[in-house]
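quick one before i forget lol
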Amino acid sequence: MTGIDDVTLNFSPGSMWILNAVLAIVMFSIALDLAPSDFHRLRKAPKALLVGFFSQFIVLPVLTFLMVLAIEPRPSIALGLMLVAACPGGNISNFITHRAGGNAALSVSMTGIATVAAILITPFNIAFWGSLYPPTHAILQQTSIDPVQIAITVGLMLVLPLILGVQCNHRYPSVAAKIRRPLQWVAMIIFIAFVILALAANWSYFLAYAGAVAGLVILHNSLALIGGWITATAFRLSPFDRRAITIETGIQNSALGLVLIFAFFNGLGGMAVVAAFWGIWHAISGLGLAFLFARTEAPR
């Protein structure tokens, strides 16, 4: 059997355009829930936001690196885990936080501001942590990854739609209210259909290698959720804020991860399977955690 590091998944340029467009639509629809005042919250009450960023962009990459050192997975799998940890919070984190009875406003603000910060932080974290582990450093050298190009990709796919969505909500609130939910549903349906078609085109690879990453992804996601909860607890945040930061740390933008993998790593099998399985599992674990959290009301 071909090794997972030698597998390149079938993913056409047309599929890349579809994924980019869907990701932009999802980001735009989420931004319709944001107003400029949400970003001003960083100045008025910065503690929870700063703790959330620390948890997401520092604690999670550190935990990921330690996990890789301890387990020593295949190089492309290790780099896939690092790349997912370098991405900003996932688009469904706001919905899951709301269902969990956590601070949804904090979650939305974290997603928005972290997405902007990801222009600089995501390329840096991929390059920095990947270069510290020799097997992944070798992959980075072979692919000649360009942090500037990653920043441009993140900016066009996430930040531009975010800015447009916030401005639409600010200038045309009635229009934003009408199109917000339909856009979110349309984007979600297209994205699910896209994932199904992509899986169908690579089904044999997925069956062959999903088992190799399933346990690692579940462990990685568990570390992310636990790390978020411990970090928020250590900084003495309220249970209301703690739930938001826990979920925001454990729900990563794996769709962005897939785009970066196919754009800059030629669809390297181990990385792509990790990001794809993350996209499935974090929704399951997040909703399960939300069910448990929702059984008790979080003090504010």
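fyi The mean pLDDT is 83.
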